[in-house]
Amino acid sequence: MNKITQNIRTLAKQLLEEKTVDSVIGFQQASLAHMTRPFMAKTIEDAQELVFNCNCRMNLTNYLSGLKNKVGIVVKGCDSRNLVTQLIENRINRDQVYIIGVPCTGLADKTKLLNTAKGLDIVSVEDDDDTIVIKTDNCSMSIEKEEILQDNCRTCIRHNPVIHDVLAGPAVPESEIQDRFKDVEKIEALNPDDKKAFFTDLLDTCIRCYACRDACPLCYCPTCFVDESRPQWVGKTTDPVDTRTYHLVRAFHDAGRCTDCGACEAACPMNIPIRVFTRKTIKDCVQYFGVEAGMDETLRPALDKFSLEDPQPFIR
């Protein structure tokens, strides 16, 4: 058991004993060694089920909407930025949430983990800062964490929570990333025909399961545009036009709000790198407005406010 997990369990036990919160939302080990699942600890005994490791990919702030009681919640840096946006948009009240912040050095991509195991059943995954040890029935292999990080973790600018009541571990150094948006710029440089081919191929396997929408903590419209029938904005089929429309409109709805937490991509059963859409909106918000989503409780999302100082060159 790592130190972060120990601290989270101790904090959760204390919060529940003192009735500071009614429950604590965190992670629990799943049936597969390389997976975790969301877990709500309501008793002191439940608190001993909480874990935190490189497999905690879900964004737990997705479970905060509609709160009636006070809860504790475990958040990583990117999660905390989503929580800030939810506060700004009045989805939750600050006094309803006790925030257990976790300094995070990155999460392991589940597909890369499985590929590293080469088809063998994974028995355990141990995260030791810069190294990950994967154990199977037949062998044990050690790999540099950098090699199997989720793609969003490679460009993360906020490893420490921007808002918290308590930290479950010491703060970690923040990253200064050069060419942070080189993946987006590579697509921007394509000619129109190549762009069309790129996105057609990208979405070719999409089955419209909406796992990306359901995993996103900021997709909380009472009725999603894909479910509207009067008027019907988009078809329900997997026709390429309907599929492209869904992904493009969803990206625009998250523009200025997305923190690149990677929950959408991690949830996709077809392993589609759908972050390319939201990455573009993040780049534009930084370039045109100098704004990163969820970094400041006093600043509304970039497309939710107007300033005379906003640069105008992109307006035609």
Automatic annotation (TrEMBL):
Any Pfam family hit: Fer4_8
Source taxon at top rank: Bacteria
GO MF annotations, alphabetized: iron-sulfur cluster binding; metal ion binding
Residue ranges of coiled coil: none
InterPro entries in UniProt: 4Fe4S_Fe-S-bd, 4Fe4S_Fe_S_CS, Helical_ferredxn
Residue ranges occupied by any 4Fe-4S ferredoxin-type domain in the UniProt entry: 196-217, 249-279
Keyword field: Iron, Iron-sulfur, Metal-binding
Name this polypeptide is given: 4Fe-4S dicluster domain-containing protein
Taxonomic source organism: Desulfobacula phenolica
